[in-house]
Design goal:
The protein is α+β, with helices and mostly antiparallel strands and 473 residues long. It is built from ten helices and 23 strands.
Length: 473
């Protein structure tokens, strides 16, 4: 497969609980002020020059050239991101670029891709929009919060002496996010937490650098009983963005292959996307017998159509012939997660289902344009992906293109991978042929995304890690 595209994921609008990222290949743009190319070694870092550089890249590469507002007055914007938002506002109004085009740090993103580097508590958070409560959805084993007693289902009651209920009442989820402090090593917060048994504790946790493990050693890979005499392989992939995910996926499928397992649950419920190379490998690992057939097609704007490409399934020693596939999703599931799912629809037909809730809806990806002297990386929407049958218009989420859907809650009172957890149980029901309730639709016909008022907690201005991993602090 073509590995020139290396990163595909979704970004977050301030008002959305979604996810982050782009395509990792770095391009050189023309024009754009002093040193306006991709390297930017002699670039001026004035806001005006950075704006010119970004505009030149978009004018040459943006996937929706007719939806680029070049009449925007750059002088009326005090930040590069604000200017970018104005340029792509017409595409955003049509739901095609929901803050997917953005500026980030070259160093920060490179560290994340290569090492999974991340400074924080090592927790993923959600809030209840009805009861104003905040819960832990995941605690990463390598992070500082896990050994302090944080785990899935833990409720945060206080942060530095302020009750979460008061923070939510006075400032909403943004107040909680701000109370958690900047994503810098050494930042310490005092918490009052309550576990699933109702036991309260006061603990202090200091943010530290930790590697984000794509597949948990506790619950990332399991073999489950489907309740009808069959075995099912379960994989919870937290992110596609860390290159180390590849070897972990190979190890998981080696186990499944050795046990003759052909029915799979992919738990992508918080997976915001990441490396296309990892997505392609995951597709390969489920495609024994499909070698040489189309995994996905990448399509750029008409002026760049010479760079369109087709990615084919390739042989992998660990691969299996998947017969049934259940994908657990949510509004935090995006991009590379959606790419893998969409690519399997033509081959599995009625034997594939989306479980849980509708996904974010990002069938497009970004190229990176670097201005190294300013540590600027522009992530610009530059391509879309479609499956073998040309299907790729799922801007409203995957639920309206999937052959089957099964609604299920995200039951944070039970661990991920637990067969009694609501979404895992619904996935097992689908695989075993038991009935389920389809994901509902709202009155205007769009597929409903939220479940029980739960939303992923996300800062107004997410860093590179948080763009790729929604809800992570």
């Amino acid at each position: 497969m073509d590995l020139g595209r290396t990163l595909l994921s979704a970004t977050l609008a301030v008002s959305l609980a979604a996810c982050g990222g782009g395509d990792g290949s770095t391009r050189t743009s023309t024009g754009g002020g002093t040193g306006g190319g991709g390297g930017g070694g002699s670039a001026s870092c004035t806001l005006s020059d950075r704006q010119d550089w970004a505009l030149a890249a978009l004018q040459e590469w943006y996937l929706f050239p007719d939806l680029l507002d070049t009449s925007v007055n750059k002088a009326s914007h005090s930040s590069l991101q604000s200017y970018l938002d104005a340029l792509v506002a017409p595409a955003r109004a049509q739901g095609k670029d929901r803050f997917f085009t953005y500026i980030t740090s070259i160093q920060e993103e490179t560290d994340l891709i290569n090492n999974g580097s991340n400074a924080g508590f090592g927790i993923r958070l959600s809030y209840d929009t009805v009861a104003d409560r905040v819960f832990i959805l995941e605690a990463f084993e390598n992070g500082p919060a896990f050994p302090a007693g944080f785990d899935r289902g833990t409720e945060i009651l206080q942060i530095n002496g302020q009750s979460v209920s008061t923070l939510m009442a006075n400032g909403g989820p943004a107040a909680v996010s701000n109370a958690l402090g900047p994503s810098d090593p050494g930042v310490t917060r005092s918490f009052v937490i309550q576990d699933t048994a109702g036991v309260q504790r006061t603990v202090n946790v200091t943010k530290a650098e930790y590697p984000l493990d794509p597949v948990s050693d506790r619950y990332g890979v399991k073999v489950l009983d489907d309740g009808a005499g069959g075995q099912v392989g379960y994989i919870n992939l937290r992110t596609f963005i860390v290159q180390g995910a590849g070897p972990q996926l190979r190890t998981a499928f080696t186990q499944f292959r050795s046990q003759g397992i052909t029915n799979i649950i992919l738990d992508f419920r918080y997976n915001g996307g990441g490396l296309v190379s990892v997505a392609e490998l995951l597709g390969d690992l489920m495609a024994e017998g499909l070698e040489g057939q189309v995994f996905s097609r990448t399509e750029l704007r008409p002026s760049k159509s010479s760079e369109n490409s087709t990615e084919l399934f390739s042989n992998q020693a660990e691969q299996i012939d998947v017969m049934k596939l259940a994908v657990i999703g949510s509004d935090g599931t995006a991009s590379a997660s959606e790419l893998v799912t969409n690519s399997m629809i033509p081959y599995l037909g009625d034997n594939i289902a989306l479980i849980g809730a509708n996904t974010f809806g990002k069938p497009v990806g970004q190229f990176a344009f670097d201005r190294s002297a300013c540590d600027d990386r522009l992530r610009a929407v530059a391509f879309k992906t479609v499956n073998r049958d040309g299907q790729g218009e799922y801007f409203n989420g995957l639920a309206d293109v999937m052959p089957n859907t099964c609604r299920a809650d995200d039951d944070y009172t039970k661990q991920l991978g637990d067969p009694d957890e609501a979404s895992v149980a619904a996935a097992l029901d689908f695989i075993a042929g038991r009935t389920c309730t389809p994901i509902s639709q709202t009155k205007d016909g769009t597929v409903q995304a939220e479940r029980r008022g739960q939303r992923l907690l996300q800062p107004d201005f997410p860093n590179a890690v948080q763009r790729e991993n929604p809800g992570v602090y």
